[in-house]
Amino acid sequence: MIKFLDLAAQYQSLKPEIDAAIAEIIEGSAFIGGKAVKQFETKFAAYQNAGHCIGVGNGTDAIEIIIEALDLPVGSEIIVPANSFIATSEAVTRAGHRVVFADVDPVTYTLTINTIMPAVTERTGAILAVHLYGYPVPLAPIVEFARARGIRVIEDSAQAHGAEIAGQRIGAIGDAGSFSFYPGKNLGAYGDGGAIVTNDSALAERCRMISNHGRLQKYDHLFEGRNSRLDSLQAAVLLAKLPLLDDWIARRNAVAQVYLEGLRDLNGIVLPALPDNGRHAFHLFVIRSEKRDQLQAFLADREIQTGIHYPISLPKLRAYDYLGMGDADFFANRTDATLLSLPIGEHLTVEDASVVVEAVRAFALIDA
């Protein structure tokens, strides 16, 4: 079996460190806040080259808290890519604003300045750029465009821990970035967890207060906030894993290179792109095939696990029927039935990747 994800194997490789970290938290009874959370916030901020990191309950909360902290006019439009998980868009609506979907680039699967332009209006308050699958959004022209017009830029970095563009780690290139530590992420906790990173000190303080009942000190509440905090057990797990993240990303890129080289000449298979001047985090390795379902079944018969991210583009979800964009002539709307995620992760060897390549090639020969 070539697994899509193998968290049990990852745990076994780190068992002494993780067990000791968890035991320390339990023995010290510091379950909320405390040393582990502060240490993780400091180290993750440094890793992401950000001035501030605020640990929160999950990645969805991170986006919503950032939006609330930006204090946009009620009902502002926030541009969201048409291909992402619903967390990206639902955070906009739940924060009291209006989702405006923009198409994604057919090569990068992310927003670009060209896909954003048709969606901009005088009511645009923010652009929510998603570093989808680990590909770093080309942010420089987007940020330049946005700042000239007073539009804020938020980075949804849930799938892109450690990704880089033009020599910068993603996350704090715009106004602020959100991260998820869902267990299956490149840097995952053993439960829900998330973080906000930013270089804006005032914005960081506002985010921290919102996440902790509108306060910085106990019982001194300046306004009504919410309860969304990264707990100490999860912080301890993340601290144990963080030193290995760069190595894990390198191993993901090694597997991706086997796929890129072994599948590049196949008709009917569209491969993901590498950034020209950055580092792909390869949270997912997503190909396109008009016979996606048949290919997935073929691989499953050979004990190769795959995934689909995402089977329905956001504008086509019933949750957004009211926007009437399900029939828009978007690349994302036309190709959502072709996306297939091949197994990738630090649990795989290049030999495993070669087995996947041979299986995909065998399907292509039968289908020819």
Q: Can you give keywords for this protein?
A:
368 residues, alpha/beta, seven-stranded mixed β-sheet, 14 strands, globular
Short description:
This protein is of the alpha/beta class. The protein has twelve helices and 14 strands.
As a percent range, the share of strand residues is: 15-25%
Q: Largest sheet, order of strands side by side? A: 1-9-8-5-4-2-3
Q: Indicate the radius of gyration in whole angstroms.
A: 21 Å
Shape: globular
Please give the alpha-carbon distance between the first and last residues.
Answer: 26 Å
Largest sheet at a glance? Answer: 7 strands, mixed
* Average pLDDT reading: 97
Taking pLDDT < 50 over at least 5 consecutive residues as the criterion, the unreliable ranges are none
What is the helix content?
25-40%
Q: Helix-strand pattern, N to C? A: HHEHEHEHEHEEEEEHEEHHEEHHEH
What's the β-strand tally?
14
Provide a descriptive summary of the structure in words.
This protein has helices at 7-28, 35-47, 59-70, 86-94, 113-116, 139-148, 201-211, 232-241, 245-263, 292-301, 331-335, 350-367; strands at residues 52-56, 77-81, 98-102, 124-130, 152-156, 164-165, 168-169, 176-180, 194-198, 215-217, 220-221, 278-279, 285-288, 339-342. By secondary structure, it is α/β, with parallel strands linked by helices. Helix 6 (139-148) links the parallel strand 4 and strand 5 (152-156). The two termini are 26 Å apart. The mean pLDDT is 97.
